[in-house]
């Protein structure tokens, strides 16, 4: 297929410039010389956080400005029935491993349940072994400590935030809630950055890509932004000003007979979310301009998706649901695959596909074999994106996520074949449900907006898909012994010292999980025997208090003076092996856990 040149005009409105993608490439001739030494494609995987299916101009949103993503979509192959999990960590585990997240120990988004087992093989590890440079720039959310960090799981260059997002208890001191000038972690080291976080991720990714090009190395760049995830207090000012000058009420968006939007909405938050998304779009434009300048656009596969439904009930093209829900609006994602000359522009496939498929797809595109003995759940969708004749037998994919230490059969799940979808919308926020499951069944070929529940009319389909789900649930639940036990954080290794423990990864025992009066414990593995310093950190205490450290079967108590913000337990002897650590700050009749704990091997 010949190279297609296309241009977008500069758009200026209200004094704000939406920098355009002047082309998604220069001439084919100008690239040929630059690409002689790189016969394998580069891969860039972009995933945004809490951006919904309807948050693009190309999906029908009449208000949002996403010119570069819209241009990318028009010149990409697309999967129009592409699925992700209803929340972020499960999607990330599926994406990185090509396996259902219930196989990986990552089952939730916090409280130690979002850590992925380090025995899992990631796409970065396989590509790195095949000679690719590998880099991540943004949100990992599969473990903040050794051996679960991105840098431990195949990424040789890593610039990431901790936890599930900026503004959470995993923020480093001095960077609480800072999207602008945040403290991030580069290859394990805290660094002070300058600028808005999404710009910083792309700045660093672009510099790294340029370096890879200069070194004649193929690269895999993973850019998972934490925008437009909450909080919304710190967003780019220019696009925010633009959206605050627009009518963002629900009556401005197309209404359908399926699931119309409620009459009222928080327009200020919507303006802030849209500003974050347009900032992402600007950076995608910057990315393509650099690929053009480096002469590698035609030799680079750029994939774009979102991690779950929107963080609020807003326009999702008439679908039902939002983030955390298993209706279409909570689990449908666009998938744009841009690879000029290889993937036909505008090619669209309606075959059911999901996050578990991108592992095989990327390896297929790169000509890298799946490692022997590695069991994957996904298929390569590359033939579908190319429009090649291919056998594609029907299959059923499974999506399930909810709170709790263990998955519960039938709780907040969806099973999707090409024609049918069976679900139980029992809600993400609960650890279980009461009574019998209330199955819903939809014919997705005739009712893609899920308006007519056919479970009573077609009990045969319900029963067939229920059996399929049962077989899947049983299979993923016995992937390894003690299948859902979270992997332990390692202390006493040269790979990470000190180890910072946060509420993101504690096992909750008291109060609301992240509330000021809550507490929990950490499950650790000590790699060596020896003395450790353990430092509790907390907001300044208003009166004299007492700090208690429970380590294994020992309780150690220290006095804490008024206005103190930390308490040091020096030279604590810890023996090799598994150990439980819990810290408590008590004053009067109240007690609470620390904000963070540093474990320092000596």
Question: CATH first level of the largest domain: which class?
Answer: Alpha Beta
- Could you say which overall geometry the principal axes of the C-alpha atoms support? globular
| Mean of residue pLDDT values | 93
Rg computed from alpha carbons, rounded to a whole number of angstroms:
24 Å
Query: Care to count the β-strands?
Result: 28
Number of helical stretches of at least 4 residues? 11
Fourth-tier CATH superfamily name of the largest domain: Alkaline Phosphatase, subunit A
Number of domains: 3
CATH fold assignment of the largest domain: Alkaline Phosphatase, subunit A
- For the record, the CATH architecture of the largest domain stands as 3-Layer(aba) Sandwich
Q: Helix content range of the residues, please? A: 10-25%
* Low-pLDDT ranges: 1-37
3D architecture notes:
This protein has 602 residues and is α+β, with helices and mostly antiparallel strands. It is 20% helix and 25% strand. The chain is globular. Helix 5 runs parallel beside helix 7. Strands 3, 4, 5, 6, 7, 8, 9, 10, 11, 12 and 13 form an eleven-stranded mixed sheet that branches. It has three domains: 42-275 and 302-386, Alkaline Phosphatase, subunit A (3-Layer(aba) Sandwich); 397-477, Arylsulfatase, C-terminal domain (2-Layer Sandwich), CATH 3.30.1120.10; 489-601, Galactose-binding domain-like (Jelly Rolls, Sandwich), CATH 2.60.120.260.
